[in-house]
Write a sequence for this structure.
């Protein structure tokens, strides 16, 4: 069943900020949403830190190379 709300977060090299944001959103007791983080091939520890998070509402998209801000936002 599809969630009633999808929240999209495009990011690039903002590991601390994006992880904190994701944790706050996932702390919500509502289960009828999905959180999609589009990491634009960050070269900091964003991928590793996001990979430590486990929640069935979280989906992480990460291309193998930087696709630019516009494409990352529309992923």
């Amino acid at each position: 069943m599809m969630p009633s709300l999808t929240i999209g977060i495009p990011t690039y090299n903002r590991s601390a900020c994006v992880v904190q944001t994701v944790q706050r959103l996932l702390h919500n007791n509502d289960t009828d949403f999905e959180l999609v983080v589009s990491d634009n091939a960050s070269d900091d520890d964003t991928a590793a830190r996001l990979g430590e998070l486990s929640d069935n509402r979280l989906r992480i998209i990460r291309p193998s190379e930087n696709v630019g801000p516009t494409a990352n936002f529309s992923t």
User: Anything to note?
Assistant: The CA atoms of residues 18 and 72 lie 15 Å apart. The two ends are 21 Å apart (CA to CA).
